[in-house]
Amino acid sequence: MEAYVLVQTEVGTAADVSEEIGALEGVLSAEALTGPYDVIARVQTENVDALGKLVVSHIHLVGGVTRTLTCPIVHL
Description:
Blueprint: E1 2-9, H1 14-22, E2 27-32, E3 39-44, H2 48-59, E4 65-72
C-alpha cells in the first residue's frame, strides 16, 4: 500500500523534518514545499495497519511535526 502523508510543521523546521522523515523505513521520498502543508512524504507499507503505525509511531514523533493528513493512493 502506498500513500502520501502531508505534514504541517512548526515554523522554520520544514527542512529538518523532511530530512528526518525521509530517513524513516517505509518512506520513499520526503520533500519540503509551500502552501498549507510544509512537507509531503510518499510512503509504502504492507497494509493499512502498517501505514497507521508508520504515521502514528514514527512520523508523528519527529520533532517539529504538528499535524498530518494521510492520503492513500488508489489505482482505478
